[in-house]
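Worked example

This section walks through a single chain of length 56. The input is the sequence exactly as stored; nothing has been trimmed or padded.
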Amino acid sequence: MLRFIKDNMATIDGIEIYPIISLLIFFTVFSIAIYWTMKVDKKKIDVLEQMPLSED
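Given that input, the structure is written out below as tokens.
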């Protein structure tokens, strides 16, 4: 099954750009998440931390 998919993917022109694009999207989202966690206010983290435990 994997061989069938691999053979079909090899015949598509320009397919080699998709792994690069997906890596760039992943790295961008990961970097933004790390930046946000470093810069967010401690009070905001406390509020988010208590959300699952609140009654309302």
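What to look for: The chain has a mean pLDDT of 88.
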